[in-house]
Amino acid sequence: MMIEALIGVALLGALVTFLAPNRIAGKLAFAISLVPAALSLWMFTAFDGSGNALLDGELAFESQLEWIQLADYSISWFVGLDGISLPLVVLTTVLTSLAIMSSWTPIDERESQFYGLVLFIEANLIGVFTALDFFVWFIFWEAVLIPMYLLIGIWGGPRRKYAAIKFFVYTNVASLVMFGAFIALVFGLDVSSFALPEITDAMLNGGPDGFLGVDGTTLASVVFVAMFLGFAVKVPIVPFHTWLPDAHVEAPTPASVLLAGVLLKMGTYALLRFNFTMFPTEIIEPFVIPIATIAVISVIYGAMLALAQTDLKRIVAYSSVSSMGYVILGLIAFTQFGVGGATFQMVSHGLISGLMFMAVGVIYNATHTRMVTDMSGMADRMPVAVGILIAGAFGYMGLPLMSGFAAEYFIFFGAFGSDLLTYAPIFTALAMFGIVIVAGYLLFALQRAVFGPYHLETDYEVSRAPLHDVAPMFVLLGLIIALGVAPDLIFEMITDAVDPLLESATGGEL
Amino acid sequence: MAVFDLPAWAGLAPALILAGTAIFLFLLDSLSRRSMSREILAGTATAGALASLGVAVWFTVAGVGAPGMENGHGVITLFDGGNAFVGDGLFVVDQLALFFMIIVAVVTALVAVASYDYMDGHAHQAEYYSLLVLAATGMSLMAAANSLVTIFIALELASLPSYALVSILKDNRGSVEGGLKYFLIGAVSSAIFLYGISLVYGATGVMQLDLIADELAGGDVDPYGGLLGLGILMLIGGFAFKTASVPFHFWAPEAYEGAPAPISAFLSSASKAAGFVIAFRVFTTAFPLEITGDVIGVDWTLAFIVLAIVTMTVGNFAAATQQNVKRMLAYSSIGHAGYALIGLAGLTADGGELVMGAAMMHLLVYGFMNTGAFLFVALAEYWGVGRTFEDYNGLARQAPLACVALAVFMFSLAGIPPFGGFWSKYFLFTGALEAGLLVVAAALVVNSALSLYYYSRLVKAVWIEDPVVDRDSLGQPTGLYAAIIFAAVMTVLLLPGFGPVVDVAIDAAAAII
């Protein structure tokens, strides 16, 4: 019942916060969010990763409850954790707490509604990462959209309405495509429930029989593509990334933190859970080269776009496109280090991008501008916040002893030795070039914004940020360094979960 | 469950309680016209509806109407004189009837509670509530009617009070106009329906639904295929009117817009559901497809397939272009009639009970989410904020709780998780797929995607847009708030609690097909 407790506390907390007066909503939401954070950390220590999500064996904290029986199919409340989902759940709960604290300064109207929505998102995100029945998963997956739409639409920047609608329409249409495809797949399979383990088992042992006159292999291939497209929008990868910079730039800082930190991981997590471990390698094989190409393009193109920006927040936003490209590359490599590294990168990027958005948010609160061209010499006025920004940038660039380095190293190592991906070394080498551009745009931006003489002309007093703005960033920095120094804190449990999945998908030829 | 055995006529208790309540309200009014308070009137109407609901739920749980159960727990038939003319009885209380009695009672209770505030200061309080409950009685009887005669009488019992209710705001031009339009089209439809009945009677020589099926199976009707076909077509016209389906939908936007908003909620939810239960019963019991198809030479589900697609498309496209919130909801309710028609369109297939069950579930969820949406409009009218989307801008600043409820209704109507509307639309979708109606399934998905546009527009207006004008702080009428919040809570709770609903609906559908 631990997972239910996590979700339940967040949901109930959302309701309580929503009804609370604005004055205390921020502190109240923070206090409530500490409960799931503490619970998930306890689960982290008590975790037993011997079971596996999509294969035999019982998962950690698993619970299954009959829900709806319709004709030949049953839908059940089915949740559990394995080594892939647990780090993401912890990331969600911790990042939510920190995001709430970091919004005490910037959010100054309709607070109780804001914090209520943030807690509501948290509950749904935990649901996405723990659900093992397609319907439970899909309900959480879609339910994330509504609060995010409102967060961007109500508290966002000047173009918030456009950004909110674009975000909603893009991701909802993608979800519909994915949903339809998956239902068709289940109809074609010989299964009696929507439980992911059962569907995976059926997929890996025989595949679908066909549906509505389409033969099984074609159906599986079409579904693979449709689901990939559905998740690709969420990730997002080029060319489906255009909603992301809009949403990011307009969203209020805490929403950006959650959006980049956790929401994007929904896409990559779903790719890992559905596309890359549910389908046998025969189905995946024809798409390996195109997907790897898209991944490399995302890395390079995302980085180039970031290079061209002058808005600090946009730079961080576009860099997510590039970082998510690495994740896709790691996934498609289909090796222990590739897939494991991709999962590690999800966590790492969640921490680093969260940190970066918070730092940019703090600077924006103080200066009321995000334009790199307007800023100069911020280091003198806001030494702590700027110091953290620089540290975060180094993490992004993949400096050793920070989590970004470990993640990228795993991915490149895994991709380089991929059996599935032909010309793996070439793809890897191209993707590695992305690091150079990343370093380029980050150093370029920092050099212009942070160093040099101070000349910002504002009516505001630009001064040091208050402690509650800086404290969450220190926590994140600590986690980034901890994971960089000792990747095995989570990498071991990730590979424990990844290995059997790869083994079953490749028929034991890992 | 039953502690003691009840006589057979007690099976109609949900409808009888409503009838009794209506008469009691008349009596109350005539006893002391001046001292009569709104509290007592609204309270009585609500209590009657809740009692009816309680009994219907109790019957369902106790197994009344479940086929194959003995000792008064099974299907109850009434007025079966044992002669060849009335066959299995003029009324039948089965699971299907009880399911729809529940929907009618729920909506009536919600509307009665909400009317307490909405009708504040209105001259004809007692008349309003008794007409409301009387119309509900008619709808409840429609659910149980088992003969073309009783169906027609129940239909008129539901319709006549509805005409009056729509135009009860006598000083309001829209209300009177809407009522007049509703009445005229209603009268024409009744005539068509009645003509259809006479044609069916002419072809078969019987009125009772089971007997019609027997006659068809007997083969005597074969020479009158054309006559029967025409009759069936006219019956479909009658249902199309009652359910506001294309091409008999023209009255709906005007009537819903002009009527007091709680009455719009009542008509678009309960009255529509009642129309559907008749269609379900008539077309499954009286005109079994395999026989009727041979006699009239056409598969009548074809008509419903076309009707379903056209209705949902027309409704959704028209809704998307509206500037007036109430009209938008009116057109969207036409669209939802199109979704529910899938239940009739898919009866042909093996999984017919799935499709019909899905349509029933959709009507139940719709009873909460659509009623709630119209009650929010009632709340806005109570506040006097105006009727267009712009007028609704920024309402969430002053009434966040009601606006949360509105967002729940809108996203649920659009079929987005985590609300009840997601399940019912999903089941309709899979039902259509299982029945092989690919085009219908595709139309459902496309229309749902389109509907998100105008539903989210209302959410955007109240939550995201800034108010155009400065408003004074808005009141919080207890009755309206209670009804809206309850409807919203139910719309959410129907997601986790859908299991029993699925069982009841599928069983009821399977029993009648």
TrEMBL record, chain A:
Q: Which residues form a coiled coil?
A: none
Places the protein is found:
Membrane
Q: Which Pfam families match?
A: Oxidored_q5_N, Proton_antipo_M
InterPro entries the UniProt entry points to: NADH4_N, NADH_Q_OxRdtase_chainM/4, NADH_UbQ_OxRdtase, ND/Mrp_TM
Q: Which residues belong to any copy of the NADH:ubiquinone oxidoreductase chain 4 N-terminal domain?
A: 73-121
* Record key words, sorted: Membrane, NAD, Translocase, Transmembrane, Transmembrane helix
> How the protein sits in the membrane?
Multi-pass membrane protein
Report the residue ranges that make up the NADH:quinone oxidoreductase/Mrp antiporter transmembrane domain in this protein: 132-431
Q: Where are the transmembrane segments?
A: 75-102, 114-132, 138-155, 167-191, 211-233, 254-272, 287-308, 315-334, 346-364, 384-411, 423-446, 467-486
Q: Does the keyword Ribonucleoprotein apply?
A: no
Q: Which BP terms does GO give this entry?
A: ATP synthesis coupled electron transport; electron transport coupled proton transport
Would you tell me the Gene Ontology cellular component terms?
membrane
Any GO molecular function: NADH dehydrogenase activity
Q: Does the keyword Transport apply?
A: no
Q: Per the similarity annotation, which family is this?
A: Belongs to the complex I subunit 4 family.
What is the name attached to this protein's record?
Answer: Oxidoreductase
Organism for this UniProt entry: Natronolimnobius baerhuensis
TrEMBL record, chain B:
Q: Keywords, A to Z?
A: Membrane, Transmembrane, Transmembrane helix
Q: Where in the cell is it found?
A: Membrane
Mention any Pfam family matching this sequence.
Proton_antipo_M
Name the residues that span the membrane. Answer: 6-28, 40-61, 96-116, 128-145, 151-170, 182-203, 223-241, 261-280, 300-321, 328-347, 359-380, 401-423, 435-455, 480-498
Is the Repeat keyword given for this protein?
no
Which InterPro entries does UniProt cross-reference here? NADH-Q_OxRdtase_suN/2, ND/Mrp_TM
What are the residue boundaries of the NADH:quinone oxidoreductase/Mrp antiporter transmembrane domain, all occurrences included?
145-451
Record bears the keyword Repeat: no
Principal subcellular localisation of the protein: membrane
Q: Name one GO cellular component term.
A: membrane
The UniProt entry lists membrane topology as: Multi-pass membrane protein
- What Gene Ontology biological process does one annotation of this record name? ATP synthesis coupled electron transport
Q: GO: which molecular function terms? A: NADH dehydrogenase (ubiquinone) activity
Record's NCBIfam families? NDH_I_N
Q: What is this protein called?
A: Oxidoreductase
